[in-house]
Amino acid sequence: MMSENEQIRYQRQLILPRFGEEAQQKLKKARVFVAGAGGLGGPVCYYLAAAGIGHLVVCDRDKVELSNLNRQILHGTKDIGEAKADSAYRTLSNLNPDITIKTHNITIDDITIAELANGADIMVDCLDNIATRHVLNWYSVRTGTPLVHAGIDGWHAQLALLIPQKTPCIKCLFGEAKDTTEPKPVLGVVPGIVGTMQALLTIKHLIGDHSGGNGLMYFDAGSLQWTRISIERNKACTVCGSNN
Ligand SMILES: [Zn+2]
Predict the structure, then answer these.
(1) How far is the CA of 218 from the centre of ligand 1 (A)?
(2) How many angstroms separate the alpha carbon of residue 41 from the centre of ligand 1?
(3) Distance 237 CA to ligand 1 centre (A)
(4) What is the pLDDT of residues 67-82, one digit of tens each?
(5) How far is residue 128's CA from residue 38's CA, in Å, rounded to a whole number?
(6) How far is the CA of 188 from the centre of ligand 1 (A)?
(7) What are the pLDDT digits (tens) for 11-69?
């Protein structure tokens, strides 16, 4: 049963075709782990909290800096110097106090991931480095937890729903690619668009709507074109391949 408050808060999506109270209950029961509260994590967390995801777990180890604010919309000027985890908690609990939000100011590694993502129905990759993506990927494949990946590179972005043993994993996609150290160029609206798509993919997966989420979606913010590229599993993948 939904409370009167919930009936009102979610009224406009409850009347949506193929959504309704059944979908709302699925969102309420869902647990989502969001890795990163930066440019992608902002729209992801905003829209998941607004939609009524029952249990939202967010992790970011960084502090808010002035140079974050062109794109990291969870945080404001007054939050500079504070942990992004604390700033994110304030913003999201103000938006929706009826859901459970847990934010963590720790490093995601092989040990902490098991605690952070414990019981998650789906995980969202809002990271800015490949090394931590591999940590997320390893946990995703090992536990069979779907992962919504996105990455931004200047005017270009990519996005994919990765389902262990059904689709490629991060390792299949990235291979041996390494992180670079220099700051990557980014206009805030690009992770805004792509993070919003991640939230949509997450919600659709949770309510059992599996249409339209196949392949790697590639966004060119220069030409405003989306392209869908089919992606295949690497049978020799050291993470999801059959030899592991
Ligand atoms: Zn793989």
Answers:
(1) 19
(2) 24
(3) 5
(4) 999 999 999 999 999 9
(5) 9
(6) 30
(7) 999 999 999 999 999 999 999 999 999 999 999 999 999 999 999 999 999 999 999 99
Q: How far apart are CA 136 and CA 127, in angstroms?
A: 10
Where in the chain are the domains? 4-229
Question: Rounded distance, CA 202 to CA 210, Å?
Answer: 10
Spacing of C-alpha 168 from chain mean position: 17
Residue recorded with tokens 């979610």? 10
State in Å: Cα 194 to ligand 1 middle. Answer: 23
CATH number of 4-229: 3.40.50.720
DSSP-assigned states of every residue in 31-89: EEEEE--STTHHHHHHHHHHHT-SEEEEE--PBP-GGGTTT-TT--GGGTTSBHHHHHH
Beta-carbon contacts of 187 under 8 Å, excluding residues fewer than 6 positions away, are 70, 71, 155, 221
Distance 239 CA to ligand 1 centre (A): 5
- Tell me the CA–centroid distance for residue 227 and ligand 1, in Å: 22
Q: Is the pTM of this model over 0.70?
A: yes
Sheet holding 31-35, edge to edge: 100-104, 55-59, 31-35, 122-125, 147-153, 156-162, 216-220, 225-229
Answer whether residue 211 shows pLDDT above 70.
yes
User: Which of 42, 73, 15, 18 lies closest to 203, judged by CA?
Assistant: 18
Residues 6+ apart with CB under 8 A from 21: 2, 14
Q: 3-state DSSP call for residue 14?
A: helix
